[in-house]
């Protein structure tokens, strides 16, 4: 008998994109460190890399998150 039960993360009906296997998975198949999600549908999970790429571009261009733009405004570039 196991002393500790392995706790699953995620539930059936939740969809993830596995970064290791580069595929859509339902529920907790791979460790959380290796996946994006959860998503409501398999289609949303299939576009996880596109979504991440779009969000990265938004964040890079957001002056609240872009230190370079803040430094330029303050005149403190290194």
- Beta-strand residue fraction: 15-25%
Placed side by side, the strands forming the largest sheet appear as 2-1-3
What's the overall average pLDDT, rounded? 82
Order of helices and strands: EEEHHH
Tell me the Rg in angstroms. 19 Å
List how many beta strands DSSP finds.
3
The major pleated sheet works out as: 3 strands, antiparallel
**Helix share of residues?**
25-40%
How many DSSP H or I helices?
3
User: What would the principal axes of the Cα set say about the shape?
Assistant: elongated
Low-confidence stretches: none
How far is it from the N-terminal to the C-terminal residue, by CA?
Answer: 60 Å
**Classification by helices and strands:** alpha+beta
Task: Tell me what you see in this structure.
The protein is an alpha+beta fold and 78 residues long. 33% of the residues lie in helices and 17% in strands. It has helices spanning 42-46, 48-60, 67-74, and strands at 15-18, 23-26, 35-39. Strand 1 and strand 2 (23-26) form a beta hairpin. The longest helix has 13 residues, at 48-60.
Topology summary:
Elements: E1 15-18, E2 23-26, E3 35-39, H1 42-46, H2 48-60, H3 67-74
Antiparallel strand pairs: 1-2, 1-3
List keywords for this structure.
78 residues, alpha+beta, three-stranded antiparallel β-sheet, 3 strands
